[in-house]
Amino acid sequence: MSKLARPSQRSQRRVFRRRRRLPVGMVIRHLLVILLLLSSGIGIVVLLQRLPEQVDLMVLVSQAISDLISGIQQLLSAMLGLGGVVLIAALVILAAVLMLAGLWRLLRLLRMLFFPPKHQGRR
User: Fold this and answer.
1) 56 DSSP assignment
2) Distance CA 13, CA 6 (A)
3) Which of the four, 5, 55, 87, 91, has the lowest number of CB atoms within 10 Å?
4) What is the DSSP letter of 12?
């Protein structure tokens, strides 16, 4: 079928149609969201402008920085202590493994000395 022979389901082409009107509910919802966003932003700005009157901001910031530095120092001190504990535990485990290996070799040597093998075979 060619384009001319195709039956037209629409009287006008899509390009020349009039725009559909926006639903009233959607417009009201958008206006309400815009109003809430603007009022919230303005309220926060007013709160931030009144904040220096109620709180000494420099003391607050310096106290927060001091607390942060002391917290970092405590964290590093705790990590250093934990590293020491892990190092001691690793040394204990290493000592135990070395002693077990030494005892095992001692037992093998004693067995070879006091109980020699009956036959000389290849190992």
Assistant:
1) -
2) 14
3) 5
4) S
Instruction: State CA 36 to chain mean position distance.
Output: 32
3-state secondary structure the chain: CCCCCCCCCCCCCHHHCCCCCCCHHHHHHHHHHHHHHHHHHHHHHHHHHHHHHHCCHHHHHHHHHHHHHHHHHHHHHHHHHHHHHHHHHHHHHHHHHHHHHHHHHHHHHHHHHHCCCCCCCCC
Helix-strand-coil split of the chain, %, nearest 5:
75, 0, 25
Q: How many residues in total does the chain contain?
A: 123
3-state secondary structure of 65: helix
Token look-up 């919230």 returns: 40
pLDDT tens by residue, 2-20: 555 555 555 656 676 677 7
Query: Residue type for 98, please?
Result: L
What pLDDT does 87 receive? 96
Statement: the pTM of the whole predicted model exceeds 0.90: no
Burial class of residue 112, CB neighbours in 10 A (0-12, 13-18, 19+)? exposed
